[in-house]
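In this supplementary section we document a worked example of the pipeline. Step one takes a protein sequence of length 242 as its only input; no multiple sequence alignment statistics are reported here. Step two produces a three-dimensional model, which step three serialises into structure tokens for compact storage. The input and output of this example are shown verbatim.
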Amino acid sequence: MAELLTVTDITAGYGDGPAILDGARLKVEPGKVHCIIGPNGAGKSTLMKAICGMLPIRRGEVTFKGERLNGLRPDQILRKGICFVPQERALFPKMTVRENLRMGGYMLNDARELDRRIEAILERFPILRERAQQHAGTMSGGQQQTLAMARTLIIKPDIVMLDEPSLGLAPKIVQEMFDIIKMMSSEGVTVLLVEQNALMGLKNADWGVVLDLGRTLFEGPAAEILADPRIQELYLGGKKAA
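The serialised model returned by step three reads:
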């Protein structure tokens, strides 16, 4: 199957500082869940920011549907179908849930179509309908993450990139987040996530990527990475996947 997104040996960093990524590579296949794991400081979040245009790529190449993305602005990349949800979720805390969903579709020119899409999201996520008039900043962490993930679906993206979707959430809520990820994948949305909980991330992914010191060490089917003794020792705390 042809790759939807390809990252080829990219180097990137912040400002004039040293390179955080130094030879990172990635292949993303359509409709699958891809999980990037690695220690703190490996460059996982930096890789996502480079893909979505938030950081300039110093060397290497990012291509999407065969088109080179290097040098494009984040809004241009978003319009092409790649949506990024950062760790901080980037909600508008003083706006209501419905208003946040509307902001997710700001690029749509058809107001009626936007209303239809918002209604479809509220139908799919009952908790958001229940909280539709509540300010986003007053919701729980899990509800905010649900809103951030649901909002990406307004523009019907090809790829949703999630940076630490389980961060700071209770175990029960974490499973709910991964259920949403599986739902996205089942509906044809390709998911690329960074997950510090490597075991949970890989168990819920089709493909795994191991990043360390700004380089991709290897990638492959998530089940194989989970079973690899080297990964268990270095990145899973020596715990064998159940």
